Amino acid sequence: MQKPPLDIGYYRHYKGPIYLVEGLARHSETEEWVVVYRPCYGDQELWVRPFTMFTEMVEWEGKAVPRFAFIGTQLEEV
Known about the structure:
By secondary structure, this protein is mainly beta. Helix content is 5%, strand content 49%. This is DUF1653 domain-containing protein.
């Protein structure tokens, strides 16, 4: 399973908060790709989410939108 393409940088969740994607990692048992990211608010602890879920489209206010949308590589761009 080849590493999927994903820009490193800042993403906006469809509900508004901003997150910093630090990279991709693999699940040790399933070899599934997961996105390693942290919120730009609160405790800023690391989180992981399956790549397929991170990059999927969701329905929000009657529209299909990305769960996380890339917004830049620098926080100043945000």
